[in-house]
Every structure is written in structure tokens, then in C-alpha cells.
Amino acid sequence: MNCFLKGAVSLMAIAVFCTQNVSAQNISEPTQSATPTGALTLDQALAKVLLKNPGLQAFSLEVRAREARTLQAGLWPNPQLQVQSEDITGTGDFDSFRKAQTTVQLNQWIRLGGKIAKKERVAALSKDLAQWDYEIQRMDVLTRAGQAFIELLAWQEKLKLADELVRLSKTSLQTVSARVESGKVSSIQKVKARVALSKTRLDREKVLSQLKSAKRRLGASWAEPNPRFDAVLGDIYTVAALPAYESLLDQVKGNPNLTRWAAEMAHRQAKVEFEKSKAVPDVQLQGAFRRIESDQENTLVVGITVPLNIFNRNQGGISEARHRLAKVEAEKSAVRLQLQTTLAEIYNKLTFSHRQATTLKNEILPGAQTAFDAMQEGYRFGKFGLMDVLDSQRTFFESKSRYLEALGNYHKAVLAIERIVGNSLAAVNLTAIKPERETGQ
Q: Is the pTM of this model over 0.85?
């Protein structure tokens, strides 16, 4: 995200950093690294995800499995050893082993039409597809982990807000108690103030429960259901200018879900070539040594087996592979359309949350703060009633809570868009809204 961390570090940049510093071996074979404690930053959380996320480990092992398949595809078929004895017993002249004929034969299939090389290429391209699938899964997991990090950060700020509200409710109760004792207000107002304090404490417990759940969700992204870190660090209050939708739409072509289709095209083309090679019949070479006991003679036997591809020339396999190849462009277009639709939906959420956060910060919160301060000060001098104070307090803190919610939605939408365009919004902003930046916006 372009402004989430101090120093304008984006999720995409962190993902690249983490990938460069975490080898594929470490991803597939996680080390026993220390459980994170204390305050946790986003880059530390994402590095932990890359090391420990079970889904990523599964995809990494799939890459290894397809590497093994590539090795297997390049191997020649094993030769066959056949031993056969004839006339070893019977009647008359064949009542003993003296007229037996023993043949030791070696058979070897010869793959013609380049089958082995073409099958090996299909397997190698399948491994490339698995690597693309791993990349897609990696970005999905990192995005979800980043959003969980933001959600936890927002709940931390809401807990601070709840603590402040409890403190103010206690102060209000003390003020009301003093006014009741001096006979300036009815004792019923003290009851109302106590009820308000109890409600704020219950609200704080609810926020604390939500914070603990958000903490567990973040820890679950690296397979730690009971995380031991104390808090997360980040700046949720900074909001950057939005890039133009058209500039984002132009960068969708860099999404891994689309770029993988070049490898998919090559893989399906290779399968067509492999299916064609099956139309070329293989031959089996045979060489044998024969022992004739009755004559005490040895002889050699050679032979060849050639299948006659009269009925089955793999017509169906070739046709199927060609049809699957023809599907590539249509499937790629469908993925592109889905990405563009998703981008439009998330961009609408981004603009709304951006506008909401900006409006709350610049227009609503200042007014609510002024009204709340005035009500508190006026109550001390008997200008306003307790209900007026509580109402202004509720309006102010509800506005601050909505502000935090809008900030969280904004930053989560930023991560979702970065996942789609395959780039940080900071880089997009530099080109898409440069004239606005030059005018001071």
C-alpha cells in the first residue's frame, strides 16, 4: 500500500523483498523460526506468511512434484528380458531335457516421432504453470494477510477510542456526582451517568473481543492460531490521492492471472505436438540367444514389432488437444473481463471510503469535536443538561469510529487493487495524478 507504512512501503514492494529473502526451499520446508513477539510490522508479518502459510507450502510442493514429473517424462522405457524353454519334456523322443530349446530374448521399445522429447516439454511447461499458480496464490495470501493486518490495526485504534470514552465517562460521572452533592442537579442524573459508564465499558469489552479475533485471524495466516505478538505497527491515518481509474485499468494486463496464459498457450501447443507424435507407431526391437540341446548348438534370433496404425491414429487425442488450444484466447478474455469487473467494483469502494474518510476528517469530526467540547464546558456551568452532553459525546465518538472504519476500508481496498494491477498505487500515482501533485494536492 502506498502510504500504509512509514516510508511509503507498499505491499507489492514488501512481497518482492520477502520473496528475494526467502528461498523456495525455505518456503516448501519451513524453518523453526522464532514466534513473533512484541510489536509486529507489516513486512515482518508478510515474511512470516511466506515461511509458514500452509497453502503456499502446498503450492510449492506441487512445483516440486511437477519437476519430478518432468524428470520421469524424459526417461526411456525399460528393456524387457524374456526367457523361454521349449520341448523340455513329453513323450517318445521328448521324454527328457535333451531336445529342449531355450531362448533368452531382450526386447526394447523405440519411441519414434519425438515422443519422449515432446512429452518432456509438456511436463516442463506444466511445471511452469505450477510456478505461475504459486505466484497467484502467493499474491492472494499476501493480500489477505495485509488486509488482516489492517483490520487488526483499525481495531487497535478503536480500542484506544473506547478507552478514551471510558475515561471521559468516568470524568462525567465525577462531575455529575459533584453537582448532585452540591444540590445543583437531581440525583437521577448520577444514575444516568453510571448507566452511560457501564455502557461504555461494555462497548470496550466488545471492541477488545473483536481485536482478539482479528489478532487470531492474522496469526492464522502463518498457521499460528494463538499468536504471541502484542500489537501491530502502522500508520492507518494517512490517505493518499487516488489515481485515475483508466490508469489502473491499463495496468490490469500485468496481473499474474493474465500473464500466466502465455505459459498456458505454450503448454497446450506442446500437448498438440505430443498428441500428433502418438500417430507415429513405435517399434520394438528383439534380440535373442537360443540354445538347441539336441544338437548342442547355439543360434541368434532377431526380430522387430511394428504396430499398424490402421484404425487408431490418435485422431481423438489430436482433436481434443487442438480444441483445448483454441479455448485459450476465450478463457484469457474471460479472466480479463472478470479482473476488470472486480477492479471497477473495488475502485468504487476505494473512492467511497476515500471520500468518506476525507469528509469525516475535514468536515464532520471538527464540528463534532467543537460541539462536544462546548457541551462539556457548558455543563459545568449549568448551561446544558446531561443528556445533551451524552448526545454530543455519542455523536463525536461514533463519528471517530466511522472514520476508523472508513480508513480501514480504504487501505484494504488499496491492497485489493494492488493485487489486481500487480503494482503499488504509489507508482501509479506518480504518473496518473502528477499535475494535481504539482498544484499542491
A: no
